[in-house]
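Lecture 7 notes: from sequence to structure.
We start with the chain below.
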Amino acid sequence: MGCFGCLKVVLIIFAVCYILVGLGLLGVSLWLRFDYLKEAADAMHRVEPTDYMNIGLYIAMGIGGFLVLLGIMGCVGAMRISLCLLGNFAVLVVAAIGGLIAVCVLAYLYQDQIVNGIIGLLNTMMLRYGEIP
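Predicted structure tokens for the same chain:
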């Protein structure tokens, strides 16, 4: 087996981690979008989720699906020792890391608007909590 077999196992483990994280993100975002937010809107007396929340959830769904496909590509590439799949996997992992860095920078730059939006939504929910529907 040697060093090459060890690297193959490590790559498969990382790819399975990508798949699990992607499935978790996809599952949580689907649950929030289609079930939890509707129940929360009913509980909070018709405070509807904003468009920004829905857009964020759709982006999270897309990222979750991308991570699942990326993990499958890594697993298949490692098992079959396909240089094409492994090369694409490496390029897409670097692109995903670059995208993560870009999102972090944008979140830092627009943190005031993000915080004010969340505070406004929470204040609206607290004000409407005791109202009769």
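Points to note: The CA atoms of residues 16 and 71 lie 6 Å apart. The chain is about 85% helix and 0% strand.
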